[in-house]
Write a structure and sequence with these properties.
The strands form two sheets. Strands 6-7-8-3-9-10 form a six-stranded mixed sheet. The longest helix has 49 residues. It starts with a helix and ends in an 8-residue tail after the last helix. It has 579 residues and is an alpha/beta fold.
Length: 579
């Protein structure tokens, strides 16, 4: 019922097409069921009585019913296709829109490959079930019931055969469906694994070729591909059992009816016309049973896909704006007040523990620490990409949970560790920072980020970047991402190791340009001491805790971790290298 409600909800304006499709099937079925009655009259009252008028009249009616049924069938195809395609479009749009509301924590609950499958394959399965399943779902039961009723009207004695065959056939069909239905979820999970392997291999194609591992990834893909093929084989091997079961029942029923019907004709208790019409209803009933079994198998798979789509749509975002959300961030001050954080509620250890920091508006703060010390996690809490487990993070004097999410994230620009550019031109990518920015503003942002050095070589603002920014180097991608962030005119600018791929001279020039930005709090995560030496304050993290905090000179005098980092980079004369 939850699946039915979901379908009804997302049919939206296409409900009318769906209802018209159902009405067309019902009318078509009624006309086709009426044809055997006319056929019986042609045989008994026309041919046997040598009455040509009855033959022509009933024959014309049969042709008229067949033509009307054909027209109704074509109308059904049109209406059902419109309803199914509309439903699919609505489901994909709703899933995608809902995904945009997910926090990082929500996205962590689903694999990327699974989300792709749910947006594509699962929606297609639901579409196919609607466009090809509505007809047998409506036609099958109605034709079955009407066929049995007409068969009893024509010959109650012969119709008793159905009372034996139909229940046995129903039990057999339900057994097949019950065995197949759980396997469809396994099949969709195998599809998830195939998509996961494919996405990972395509994303890492440069690494694969650099390490000459094409053979290895081909073997890995072959393994998941074979698993999918084996799973599909096991699933459909059981599903196709309905065909021999139905055919066996049809032949057994036909033989029994021919045997008993022939005896009744010889005994004079059944006319040839009635027997001919009865055999037509036998075919109608068997075909109805076959349609019902097929639609049950189709619905079993569709139900699995509907459940998977529902899991995405029913996922509640862990981060939402409060009812009376603040819409304006007063300044760029940032305070961490005894902050603790862990990614999973059942995790044994916090990623951040009792972090206390006070960052003044407009200041520049550097963050250093070893791998896994919690640097990236720390700055993600400022933009409320995750919520703290304990304590509070305040920006502009207010808890980040008091702000409207869009307003907060507009005021906090984050250049993440993984630089992401989109297919299109430089202008289209920079417009993510400010859709209304003029060319002059974009060029100024590029100048501050030192992206102007290579801009003309790639075609200026209208230069194409390629898929994911593949047309530029890693350092150029970093500088374009910084320029994009600057166009937001943020209160807080967070650079998460965002100049690691640029040379020392360019890094210094970028830092010098950013230092001139008035009223913007700069938080710089870096591996190089040289990138944060001039900061107003340097924070050293160790195992999720603030180990030390101070200026370069202060930390160099008292903090062993900072001293070790400094000696490894500067003391040995390799200040341009990453620790």
């Amino acid at each position: 019922m939850d699946g039915v409600r979901l379908i009804a909800r997302f049919l939206g304006p296409y409900r009318r097409d769906f209802l018209l499709a159902v009405l067309c099937v019902a009318a078509e079925t009624s006309l086709e069921l009426f044809i055997p009655i006319l056929m019986a009259q042609v045989v008994d009252q026309g041919i046997m009585a040598a009455d040509l008028h009855v033959v022509l009249t009933n024959g014309a009616l049969m042709l008229l019913c067949a033509a009307a049924a054909l027209a109704l069938g074509l109308a059904y195809a049109r209406f059902s296709a419109r309803a199914a395609m509309g439903l699919g479009a609505n489901l994909r749009a709703a899933e995608y829109a809902h995904l945009q509301t997910f926090s990082f924590a929500n996205i962590d609950d689903f694999e990327g490959s699974s989300l792709v499958t749910r947006l594509t394959t699962d929606v297609t399965v639901v579409q196919n079930a609607l466009v090809t399943g509505t007809r047998p779902l409506v036609r099958g039961p109605s034709a079955l019931v009407a066929g049995i009723v007409y068969a009893f009207v024509m010959s109650p004695e012969l119709a008793v055969v159905f009372c034996v065959v139909v229940p046995l056939l129903a039990v057999a069909m339900l057994s097949v469906v019950a065995r197949v239905a759980p396997r469809y979820r396994v099949l969709q999970r195998a599809m998830d694994q195939l998509n996961d392997a494919l996405q990972e291999d395509l994303a890492a194609i440069r690494v694969i070729k650099a390490y000459v591992r094409e053979g290895h990834v081909a073997e890995r893909f072959a393994a998941v591909n074979t698993h999918l093929a084996d799973t599909a084989t096991r699933t459909f091997r059981t599903a196709v059992l309905n065909v021999p079961i139905l055919q066996g029942a049809m032949y057994a029923t036909s033989v029994a009816i021919l045997l008993f019907g022939g005896q009744m004709i010889l005994a004079g208790t059944l006319t040839v016309g009635a027997f001919t019409g009865f055999m037509s209803y036998v075919l109608q009933i068997v075909n109805s049973l076959m349609m019902i079994s097929n639609v049950f198998l189709m619905l079993a798979r569709a139900v699995t896909s509907v459940e998977r789509v529902s899991e995405v749509l029913d996922e509640r975002p862990t981060l939402t704006s409060p009812p009376d959300a603040l819409a304006d961030v007063a300044d760029g001050s940032v305070v961490f007040d005894h902050v603790c954080f862990k990614y999973a509620s059942d995790a044994e250890k916090n990623v951040l523990s009792d972090v206390c920091l006070d960052i003044a508006a407009g200041s520049t703060v550097g963050v250093l620490g070893g791998t896994g010390s919690g640097k990236t996690t720390l700055v993600q809490l400022i933009a409320r990409l995750y919520d703290v487990t304990a304590g509070a993070v305040r920006v502009g004097g207010h808890d980040v949970r008091a702000y409207d999410l869009a307003a907060l994230r507009d005021a906090v620009a984050v250049v993440l560790q993984k630089n992401v550019l989109f297919s299109g031109t430089v202008r289209e990518n920079l417009a993510w920072g400010d859709a209304d920015a003029t060319d002059e503003q974009m060029l100024e942002a590029c100048r501050l980020a030192r992206a102007d050095e290579f801009l003309e070589r790639i075609g200026g603002l209208d230069g194409l970047l390629g898929q994911g920014g593949a047309g530029v180097s890693g350092g150029q991608r970093q500088r374009l991402c910084i320029a994009r962030a600057l166009l937001k005119h943020p209160r807080v600018l967070i650079l998460d190791d965002s100049t690691s791929a640029v040379d020392m001279a360019t890094d210094a020039a970028i830092r010098e340009n950013l230092a001139r930005l008035a009223g913007v709090t700069k938080i710089v995560i870096a591996q190089r001491v040289a990138s944060v030496m001039d900061a107003d304050k340097i924070v050293v993290l160790d195992d999720g805790r603030v180990h030390a905090c101070g200026t370069h000179e202060e930390l160099l005098a008292i903090d062993p971790i900072y001293q070790e980092i400094y000696e490894s980079q500067v003391g040995s004369g390799i200040s341009g290298e990453v620790a």
